[in-house]
Specification:
Layout lengths: L1 H20 L3 E6 L7 H16 L4 E6 L7 H9 L5 E3 L2 H4 L18 H9 L1 H8 L6 E7 L3 E6 L14 E4 L3 H10 L2 E4 L5 H6 L5 E5 H6 L8 E9 L2 E6 H5 L3 H35 L3 E4 L2 H22 L2 H19 L3
Parallel strand pairs: 1-2, 1-3, 6-7, 6-8, 9-11
Antiparallel strand pairs: 3-10, 4-10, 5-8, 5-9
């Protein structure tokens, strides 16, 4: 009888240890957008790949619509080890790493190809590498897209059309300075309060990528969409560095590779959707206008020099120069067909 009891206890112990050994390690990811946003769709692929390739050792949980806090708060939780991962716009990221201000230089990129070459090349890699000093691991640039301006007053076709417009911006100093230079009156408002501010006409307009303009139903509270593409705004996916280093080498490879595949998928989804979103916004009664390259040039001239000067004063000037050189190289490579 005693032998049976000992065997039973031993069996229970083995089963308990097995359940511990095979318990999935959670990866909680905070997102500010809904499950249908391109970055969210990219992270859904990330989840599928990670869980399948680790045989369930890692379990990815996606928390949409700022359930775990806004962008800045979520990155703070990742930095402090309270969350494994989060995505955030470049603006909130500057709170933790002021080198991210380079992404706030207006009218830096002519199109997505230029932007992607820079983000995926040495300049983007150096920006991610700089995050490790503050305990963050940069994994991928989930897609958010170029930011455009909407308002309820008039179409913006020229630099002069910005004059006097009260525009909601992110809580990012360089965004505010850029809109001041354009002649507008910038008003920072958190993403979670955006629709209410538009609805109550606290400001005349706001600026966001097309995916966000559609997601928050700007067509209900705004009349005009001006495709000025003033800033390319990727959503960096960052992880807690200590947590990432605590993974096995195989798990790190799986996570890092899945993040890049998710990034590329989110880009493809966003690119395919944007023209469709323009048509949808028009069907909802919004007036959508392209801004000419000549006028974008005037907007660039009105904003870029002073913004670059401000960023150099606030962060590493040599890093800013390297970033700008990376953009020029990407532009030349595209022109040369490389």
């Amino acid at each position: 009888m005693r032998k049976r009891v000992v065997l039973l206890v031993a069996l229970i112990f083995v089963l308990a240890m097995a359940s511990v050994s095979f318990a999935a390690k959670p990866i909680r990811i905070s997102l500010c957008n809904s499950e249908t946003h391109p970055q969210s769709i990219g992270l859904q692929l990330f989840k599928e790949l990670v869980e399948k390739q680790t045989n369930g050792e890692l379990k990815v949980n996606l928390y949409y619509n700022s359930q775990l806090g806004g962008e800045r708060e979520s990155v703070e939780q990742v930095k402090n080890g309270l969350l494994e991962m989060a995505t955030a716009s470049a603006g909130p990221m500057t709170t933790f790493n002021n080198k991210f201000m380079v992404l706030d230089i207006p009218y830096s990129f002519n199109d997505y190809n230029e932007a992607w070459l820079v983000m995926d090349g040495p300049a983007g890699n150096a920006l991610f590498a700089s995050c490790e000093a503050i305990g963050l691991k940069g994994l991928a640039w989930m897609e958010n897209g170029f930011r455009h301006t909407t308002n309820s007053t008039k179409a913006i076709n020229t630099l002069e059309d910005f004059k006097g417009l009260k525009i909601r911006t992110m809580e990012a100093p360089m965004h505010m300075e850029a809109f001041k230079n354009l002649g507008a009156n910038p008003t920072p408002v958190p993403w979670t309060e955006l629709y209410l501010v538009m609805q109550q006409r606290v400001v005349d307009g706001q600026e966001n990528p097309l995916a966000n303009i559609w997601e928050v139903k700007m067509y209900e509270v705004q009349k005009f969409v001006s495709l000025d593409g003033h800033i390319y705004d990727p959503m960096p996916l960052v992880a807690n560095l200590d947590w990432y280093n605590g993974l096995t080498k195989e798990q790190q490879t799986i996570v890092s590779t899945a993040a890049i595949l998710g990034q590329n998928y989110s880009r493809a989804v966003n690119a395919a959707r944007e023209r469709y979103i323009v048509d949808l916004l028009r069907s909802k009664g919004m007036e959508v206008n392209e801004v000419s390259e000549a006028e974008k040039g005037k907007m660039r001239a009105a904003t870029q020099e002073s913004i670059i000067k401000s960023i150099k004063e606030k962060t590493d000037a040599a890093f800013v120069d390297e970033w700008l050189s990376g953009i020029e190289k990407a532009r030349k490579d595209i022109k040369a067909g490389l």
